[in-house]
Amino acid sequence: MDIGKSFTYLFDDENWVTKILIGGLFVLLSSIVIGIPFMLGYMVETVKNVIDGNPRPLPDWADLGAKFTKGLMLFLILLIYSLPIIFVSCLSWMGAIVAGESEAIGAFVVCMNCLSGLWGLLVAIVTPAATIRYAITGEFMSGFQFGEIFNFIANNLANYIIAFLLSVLASFIGGFGVILCGVGVLFTGFWASLVEAHLFGQVYRASETQII
User: Fold this and answer.
1) How far is residue 12 CA from its own chain's centroid?
2) What DSSP string runs through 181-197?
3) Residue 106: helix, strand or coil by DSSP?
4) pLDDT digits (tens, 9 = 90+) for 55-71
């Protein structure tokens, strides 16, 4: 894997400024949900371009309808993975309301929050592989082919862990955009998502087994 490339490849694109600016606009629109499918669709296309060995993997902001459709499918996949967290959060919220009346309920809320945190970590680890599989197949149900997904992670564990940790690092760096009165995070956050897309696209390309 070329780790450095994942952090800088977008600057090799002659139109990277325009693409990042448009991406930042969709990040802003994500605050009212409508931008999320476009963002995810762009990420799916980036992953696929890296997998295909495209020397300029940054997609054009063309055919927004296709990006929206791809992103909506991935959004639904991620939402389904997150349903247990949403359910547990609702239970915890209801329990917190009456927690002062019962120590047992208070302990229940703490346990639920711990379970929610563990599930959130599992989702964070698994969903990149699910995203890769969806990017390759374009099929909604491929995001839930758990045998193939877990086999891919297991067979590429070292590279997968590296990509995961570096994605966390990129997100942390992207968070520094808030220093620019909050506006910069629109672009640094988008950059972080592109770093993640390239990293996991490389994980697939580096795979010798090509299971997924």
Assistant:
1) 23
2) TTTTHHHHHHHHHHHHH
3) helix
4) 899 999 989 999 999 99
Distances (CA, A) of 104 to 17, 107, 109: 55, 5, 9
Report the distance separating Cα 2 and Cα 155, nearest Å. 19
Please, which residues have CB within 8 angstroms of residue 145's CB and are 6 or more apart in sequence?
Answer: 133
pTM: 0.85
How many Å apart are CA 178 and CA 67, to the nearest integer? Answer: 27
Q: Extract the tokens encoding 142.
A: 């491929």
Find where tokens 């490849």 sit.
9
Q: 3-state DSSP helix/strand/coil percent for the chain, to nearest 5?
A: 85, 0, 15
Cα distance between residue 31 and residue 35, in whole Å: 8
